[in-house]
Design goal:
The structure holds two protein chains of two kinds. Chain A has helices spanning 3-46, 49-52, 66-97, 100-115, 118-145, 160-184, 188-196, 201-210, 214-230, 233-238, 256-263, 270-305; strands at residues 56-57, 62-63. In chain A, strands 1-2 form a two-stranded antiparallel sheet. Chain A is built from twelve helices and two strands; from the N terminus they run ααββαααααααααα. Chain A is mainly alpha-helical. Chain A starts with a helix and ends with a helix. By secondary structure, chain B is an alpha/beta fold. Chain B has one domain (28-50, 79-247): P-loop containing nucleotide triphosphate hydrolases (Rossmann fold, 3-Layer(aba) Sandwich), CATH 3.40.50.300. Chain B has helices spanning 43-50, 80-86, 102-112, 118-131, 135-138, 151-163, 181-194, 207-213, 231-236, 241-247; strands spanning 5-14, 17-27, 32-36, 60-68, 71-72, 87-90, 169-173, 199-203, 216-221, 224-230. Chain B is built from ten helices and ten strands. In chain B, 46% of the residues are buried. In chain B, a hairpin with a 2-residue loop joins strand 9 (216-221) and strand 10 (224-230). Classes of the chains: A mainly alpha, B alpha/beta. Bound molecules: adenosine-5'-diphosphate and magnesium ion. Magnesium ion binds next to helix 1 of chain B.
C-alpha cells in the first residue's frame, strides 16, 4: 500500500471511531429526551412529589415512585451484601488455594451461572428458593432474630429476601471473575513479603491480596450493583410485586424494573403510561448516579493505594 | 563460638529441577555473609531456604538441615510461620504494602505477632525507621502510603519493616540491584551500621559491594558452593580456579 492510501484509510478509520464515540453520547441523550418527553405530564402534575409519594394507584391516577425506588435500592444492596463476600471468597479460593484442576472446574461452573437466562433463575427461585425460604429459613430467622425489624413479620417466601438472594446469585459470576483477575494481578512480591514477615496464609491473603485490591473490589461491586438495579425478569417472579415500604426482609416489595415489566402491557390510560416511563427515567438516573458515585470513590481509593487502576 | 546459622548438606528442588546440590556452611553472630555467583545459580533459592520461604513455590522441596540457634528449622514439629517471624527479609524489588501507611508498614510485623499497644508500636516504628536511616525523611508523614516514597526510600522502609521485630538475622536478596546509584550508596552505608546489631546474609551481584560490606563470602555456581571463606581471602587469594575466574570477571 502506498503511503497516501495508508493515510487515507487511517483517516477513514479515525472518522468511523469518532462517529461511533459521539454516536453513543447522542444515543444516551436521545434516550433521555424521549423518556422526559413521554413522562412530562407526570412531572407536570406531581412535580418533585413524584419521588417521595408513597402511593401507586392507576385507577385514581395517583403515582408515586418512592416504594419502587426503595424496593430497587434495598434488593440491590442486599444482593451486594451477599454477593461481594461470596465472590471474594471464590476468587481467593481460585487464585490462592485451589490446584489447577479444581481452579478450572470452579471457574467454568461460575461462568456457566452467567449463561443461565434470567427467567430460568426466576423459575428456580419460585419453585425452589421461595418455598425453602417460606418453610425453613424465614421461620428460623424470625424465631431467633425476630426482635430485629429486618427479620420481623410473616414468612411469605416471596419478597425482598428472595429477590436479594436471586440477584446475588446472578451477579456473583461478574463480581467474582473481576475479583479473580484483580487478585491475579497482585504481584507475588507482596505475597512473599507478607509470608516472610510471618503471616499465615490467611493473613497473607488479607494483607497482600485483598487489601491491595480494595479499589478494584469496589469497582467490581458497583458493576454488580449496576446489573442488580436493572435486573427485571427473575426479580419480578420472586419479589411479590406489592408496592410497600417495610423494614422487614420477609415482606413483598416491588422494584422499578419489575413494575414496568408488570404493568406496561396493561397501561390503562396515558397518565399511567407516562408514570411508567417516568419510572424508567428514575431507573436510568439511579444507575447513572450509582456509577458516577462509584467512579468518584474509586478515584479516592486509587490515590490512597495506587493499585487497581 | 557457637554458630548462629549452620547449614548442612542443603538440597532444594523445584519440580524435577535440582537447584541446590548439597550446600554446607555456617555463619556466626555479627557476620555479614555475601553470596555471589552468576544468575540462576541458586543464590536466591539458598536464602529462601533459610526462612522456609522456598517451600511456598508450587512443586518446591527441600532436604538437609538448617540450624538456627541450634534448632533445625526443618524439624518435623517446627512451624514455618514462627521461623519467618524471627528472621527478617528484604527483597530485590522494594515491596511495601500499598494499602498500608508508612507507619503501618513498619508496625505490621509486630501486629502479626499480636502486639497492639500503641506506645509499644510507636516506639518500635521510630527505632526501626531510625535504624533504616529513614526517620528524618518520613517523620512528618507517617500516615502517607508507603508507596508514596521514592524507590530507594521504599527499600529502606522495607529494611525498617524487617528490623521492627528485632530479628537476629536479616536476609537480603540483591537489595540494591533495582535502585539508582545514589540510593544504592545510601543503603550500602546503612549496611555498615546495621551489621552492629544484626547478622546479615546478603545476595549480591556486585563484587565491589561484596568486598566492601561483607566479612564472609560464599561463591555459588550451578547450585554448588564452590568456595566459602573470609571475604578478604576470597577476593585476594581464592583457592578455586573458578572463583578466581568469576571474581576477575572472566565469566558471569
Ligand atoms: N518460581 C520458580 N519456578 C521455577 N523455577 C524457578 C523459580 N525460581 C527460580 N527458579 C529456577 O531456579 C534456579 C535458581 O534460581 P535462583 O535461586 O533465583 O538463582 P539466582 O538468585 O542465583 O539468580 C534457576 O534455574 C531458576 O530458573
Ligand atoms: Mg536471585
Amino acid at each position: 500500500m502506498k503511503k497516501k492510501d495508508k493515510d487515507f484509510s487511517d483517516k477513514i478509520f479515525y472518522w468511523i471511531l469518532k462517529i461511533l464515540g459521539y454516536g453513543t453520547m447522542v444515543l444516551l441523550a436521545a434516550l433521555v429526551v424521549v423518556l422526559l418527553k413521554v413522562s412530562f405530564p407526570i412531572f407536570e402534575k406531581f412535580g418533585l412529589k413524584f419521588f417521595i409519594l408513597n402511593d401507586w394507584n392507576p385507577v385514581t391516577r395517583v403515582f408515586g415512585a418512592l416504594p419502587f425506588i426503595y424496593g430497587t435500592v434495598v434488593t440491590s444492596l442486599l444482593a451486594i451484601v451477599i454477593a461481594v463476600p461470596v465472590s471474594i471468597g471464590i476468587a481467593l479460593f481460585v487464585t490462592e488455594i485451589a490446584n489447577s484442576k479444581i481452579k478450572k472446574i470452579l471457574s467454568f461452573l461460575v461462568e456457566m451461572l452467567a449463561a443461565i437466562p434470567s427467567v430460568v433463575y426466576g423459575l428456580w427461585g419460585l419453585f425452589v428458593l421461595v418455598p425453602w425460604l417460606r418453610n425453613s429459613v424465614e421461620p428460623f430467622l424470625g424465631k431467633y432474630l425476630g426482635f430485629i425489624p429486618l427479620f420481623y413479620g410473616a414468612p411469605y417466601g416471596v419478597g425482598v429476601l428472595a429477590a436479594g438472594i436471586i440477584l446475588a446469585i446472578m451477579i456473583v459470576p461478574t463480581v467474582s471473575s473481576i475479583c479473580r483477575e484483580i487478585f491475579y494481578s497482585v504481584p507475588n512480591l507482596f505475597r512473599e513479603g507478607a509470608l516472610a514477615l510471618g503471616a499465615t496464609h490467611w493473613e497473607m491473603m488479607k494483607l497482600a491480596v485483598v487489601k491491595s485490591s480494595v479499589s478494584g473490589i469496589f469497582g467490581a461491586s458497583i458493576l454488580g450493583l449496576g446489573r442488580a438495579l436493572g435486573e427485571t425478569m427473575a426479580v419480578t417472579m420472586v419479589i411479590g410485586n406489592r408496592p410497600q415500604i417495610s423494614p422487614s426482609l420477609f415482606s413483598p416489595a416491588q422494584t422499578l424494573a419489575s413494575l414496568i415489566a408488570n404493568e406496561y402491557n396493561e397501561a390503562s390510560n396515558s397518565s399511567h403510561l407516562a408514570a411508567l416511563t417516568a419510572m424508567g427515567l428514575v431507573l436510568l438516573m439511579v444507575s447513572l448516579a450509582v456509577n458516577t458515585f462509584a467512579k468518584i470513590i474509586q478515584k479516592r481509593f486509587q490515590m490512597r493505594t495506587g493499585v487497581g487502576k | 563460638m557457637t554458630n548462629l546459622v549452620e547449614v548442612n548438606n542443603l538440597k532444594a528442588w523445584i519440580g524435577e529441577q535440582q537447584i541446590l546440590k548439597g550446600i554446607s556452611l555456617s555463619v556466626q553472630h555479627n557476620d555479614v555473609l555475601a553470596i555471589i555467583g552468576p544468575s540462576g545459580c541458586g543464590k536466591s533459592t539458598f536464602i529462601r531456604c533459610l526462612n522456609r520461604l522456598h517451600e511456598e513455590i508450587i512443586g518446591a522441596r527441600v532436604e538437609g538441615e538448617v540450624k538456627i540457634l541450634n534448632e533445625n528449622i526443618y524439624g518435623s514439629t517446627v512451624d514455618p510461620v514462627r521461623v519467618r517471624r524471627q528472621i527478617g527479609m528484604v527483597f530485590q524489588k522494594p515491596n511495601p504494602f500499598p494499602s498500608l501507611s508508612i507507619y503501618d508498614n513498619v508496625a505490621i510485623g509486630l501486629k502479626l505477632a499480636g502486639i497492639r499497644r500503641k506506645s509499644a508500636l510507636d516506639e518500635v516504628v521510630e527505632r526501626s525507621l531510625k535504624q533504616a536511616a529513614l526517620w528524618d525523611e518520613v517523620k512528618d508523614k507517617l500516615r502517607m502510603p508507603g508507596t508514596s516514597l521514592s524507590g530507594g526510600q521504599q527499600q529502606r522502609l522495607c529494611i525498617a519493616r524487617a528490623l521492627a521485630v528485632n530479628p537476629p538475622i536479616l536476609l537480603m536478596d540483591e537489595p540494591t540491584s533495582a535502585l539508582d546509584p545514589i540510593s544504592k550508596a545510601k543503603i550500602e552505608t546503612l549496611l555498615q551500621d546495621l551489621k552492629r546489631y544484626v547478622t546479615i546474609i546478603m545476595v549480591t551481584h556486585n563484587m565491589q559491594q561484596a568486598s566492601r560490606v561483607s566479612s564472609k563470602t560464599a561463591f555459588f555456581l550451578l547450585g554448588e558452593l564452590i568456595e566459602f571463606g573470609p571475604t578478604e581471602q576470597i577476593f585476594t587469594q581464592p583457592k578455586a580456579k573458578l572463583t578466581e575466574d568469576y571474581i576477575t570477571g572472566r565469566f558471569g
